[in-house]
Amino acid sequence: MSTKPPIRACLFDMDGLLLNTEDLYTLCSSTVLLRHGRPPLPWSLKAKMMGVPGSSNGDLFHAWAQLPISREQFAAEQREQQEQHFPECRPLPGVEKLLATLRTAKSGTDGRYPMQMALATSSETYNFNLKTSNPTTRAVLDLIELRHRVLGDDPRVPKGRGKPSPDIYLVALQAINDTLPSDVPQITPAECLVFEDSVIGVEAGRRAGMQVVWVPHAEIAAQYHGQESEVLAGRIGLVPIGDEEQLGQPGDGWAQQLPSLENFPYARYGMFVS
């Protein structure tokens, strides 16, 4: 993996990367915590939960929260808050321009192929529909074709193989390859660029053998200050799953950190844009 080929497909996470959901998730959890006399959710804990399926009501959270209610009641009250606030989701800065530009971009060494895009999100269908219920938000997500979207409850992703396992990104790539014309070469993992905000999402992209752009929330970037090279290599190990040979090496150049999706450096990845 010493030579990086030009990018032919961009694969996107959604929560905290395309949409401002992380602040809303924090609001929903903290509202329930405060209602029951507990402190708001700290970013030090949230940093370990982001992107992990089921983590908002999992062992790590409840070991910290020490709530006087059952997990079932917490889930119900959190769901009420999410149903209230998720429709407030909006695209983050730079997202609409980036997706619109990639829709007409070209790829390959001589720019002969249309750029491909896919969505690979841990959000399940019900939550996805809540988060995209606003027409403006829905219009931005619709820039990614429906047939190239892989959600958290997609049956093509084996149960228990959510991020940081690479499966969801490999399924998203297969969804793209299945729709390419017969005269267009199949896209390899190395020709894919994964866009992620979470640490385990970066790891999933690296495990898939793909190039990665990490665009963390400012609070997450602060939590991992000084560990950036380990994050970009996929070597933080928040959820140990083995298969260490899938991980990158610090400083190998296959992952980069960006402050936002504004002013994206298309040329760095061999993309031809007009």
Description:
The two termini are 30 Å apart. Helix 9 links the parallel strand 6 and strand 7. The protein folds into 2 domains: 193 residues, HAD superfamily/HAD-like (Rossmann fold, 3-Layer(aba) Sandwich), CATH 3.40.50; 67 residues, DNA polymerase, domain 1 (Orthogonal Bundle). It has 11 helices and 8 strands. Strands 5-4-1-6-7-8 form a 6-stranded parallel sheet, with helices on both faces. Strands 2-3 form a two-stranded antiparallel sheet. It is of the alpha/beta class. GO terms for molecular function: phosphatase activity.
Principal-axes geometry comes out as: globular
Helix and strand composition category: alpha/beta
Compute the number of structural domains. 2
At the fourth level of CATH, the homologous superfamily of the largest domain is HAD superfamily/HAD-like
Name the poorly predicted regions.
none
CATH class of the largest domain: Alpha Beta
Q: What's the tally of helices?
A: 11
What Rg do the Cα atoms give?
18 Å
Sheet having the most strands: 6 strands, parallel
| Helix proportion range | 25-40%
Q: What series of H and E elements makes up the topology? A: EHHHHHEEEHHEHEHEHHE
Order of strands, widest sheet: 5-4-1-6-7-8
Protein name: HAD-like domain-containing protein
Organism: Microdochium trichocladiopsis
InterPro entries: HAD-like_sf, HAD-SF_hydro_IA, HAD_2, HAD_sf, PGP-like_dom2
Pfam families: HAD_2 (PF13419)
